[in-house]
Amino acid sequence: MTTVTEAGPAAPAGPAHPLDQRRPLGDRSFQILALACGLLVLVILVLIAVSTSQQASSWFTTEGWGIFKNNWNPAANTYGALAFIYGTAITAIIALIMAVPVSVGIALLLTEVVPYRWSRPIVYVVDLLAVVPSVVWGLWGILVFAPWLNTIYAHIGSAVTGIWVLGPLFGPPTSGASFFTCGIILAFMITPIVTSLSREVIATVPAIDKEGAYALGATRLEMIRGAVWPHSQGGVVGAVLLGMGRAMGETIAAALVIGSSPAITSHLFAPGYNMPAVIANEFGEAFGLQRAALMGIGVLLFVITIIVNVIARGVVERSARRKRGT
Amino acid sequence: MQLGRRQQVLTAGAAFVAMALSLAACSSSSSSSSTTTPSTSASSSSSAAALSGTLDGSGSTFQTTFQEAAISAFKSVQPGMTVVYGSGGSGKGRSDLASNVVQYAGSDSPIPSSEASTFKGTVLYFPVVIGPITVSYNLSGLSKPLNLDPKTIAEIFEAKITTWNNAAIAADNPGVTLPSTTITIARRSDSSGTTQNFTKFLVEGAGSAWTLGSASTVNWPAASRGGNGNGGVASIVKSTPGAIGYVDYADAKASGLTFANVKNSSGNYVAPSPASATAAADSVTAAANLTFSAIWASGAQAYPITYQSWVLCYETQSSTNVAAMLKAYIGYLLGPGQQLLPSLGYAPLPSSLDSMATSQLSKIGM
Q: Which CATH class is domain A65-325?
């Protein structure tokens, strides 16, 4: 019995090798091109990291571990960046706490609840939030939103003074331009990203899994927990990470509404500072050690974002492996 | 061949991009290729040869309004030259000049010693503007501007004096009933030469009463409100009763703010104005390279919070054309350009300083 070996359109007529001579030229050159593009991104990233670290090296050598002290004072030529790291962390956390439930909720709403006909206009409106430029958010924030919020903060502040946990968090001093206002505006800015990415990921859940859950008698919530979430958790976490990256790095909006006061305080309604804001505000007039310090803060932001990304991906991978049973 | 939908969109997009690029190329080439410089150019300085080329500058935002007005007025003097001023801050201007990105820089302070090694040659300083920094406030019910002395101002801005009816303010203003409004401090959120010179005044005039030092940004008290740019501080003062802030004279006038009379080193309370600023600059002795500080100047009618700004350029230029263009433009800033200053809210240089700067022009060369 003769067997006919069929060569598929792009299959090599022999043992397969990545860059085998017998592969068609188009295939080979596409592979090389794609590899080059991928490597280019990596190379650019590494070059950015290296060149900013070089510019910041005088700060690292002069201050040593003092870069993590809370003593940013250009007049005294000391540059400890702890207040900014704290501010970035706090504003990002506030933004995520507010934006992620809303965004994932909207995504689930659009895929599971709302009829398809209505989901298109809602998606369009949410994406419009992403179109607003950062500086417009900042200007609106400081001219309109912050003064209005300040009256609310003042009421809350006077109501919770002296109460056990709420007092230090929400008590006076209050200011329109503060950590909390910055967090709210960042939440507005990251909602469209997280929503649209989550929605796309959730939409790829195979209908057969969902129908199977319903067939077993699951309620809608149980179906979402049992069929949708295991499939989409990686993607949703990825979307949240992207949103967090944007929240940590958002510059002009933060610079305008955060209050420009380097301080580590538990009072969320008090003015603060964060890493991108201080770079934007002080770079024009900076020279010498201050300039190196500002570039160093950029390097720190880069490193912190990478670390948080790695940790989050690790957590997702672990939980996905556990769910798969491997 | 009928193009599919996607191919149609791609082709249209590519055609649009090509058209846009070619339009941009055409328009830019017509402005930078200065082939039309008639020898009988309508220049009022009849002895100046017609120059052509581009001059790039960047730096101090304090100078920006002046530079922009001078550049457009200069177009009629030297139509073949294109001058560009990019602003961006004194620090940026100095570093741009050090790396030869620009031919001239605007700076509110002389090159600090830590930066001096980045410059590859001697740098010439040309003072071009003087300007007062006002201490503006928002307090209703007063018939005339308040008098403030440097020590009181220092304590106000350090949040040691918190209400307007404090004894120190009352001592400067006998017979005036001051309201008990809380003082809100308005200051800059971004770094700036204005902050640097205002804090320099406080260091020199208030002595030990001012503990925050002097820099382009300092650690203001937490209760202070930061505004972006002079306009930002002006709008905080304007909208908050009881606010006090330091604002450039030009922006304070434009916003209609009330300014305080500040006590100078001779003991007189002087109001900020172009005249009192020029009086301050008149009484300083400039160093040989024309650096000086008009802050806390002596002189009976000098306004003590006056600051200055220079145009910097290298002494040795790489081409005769650039040297000639620099001489023409900086000469314009020091000459007819000074007439533009009062209407813009600055003060013109005193004539002694102006003539020293003009005679330094001849040093620019190869």
A: mainly alpha
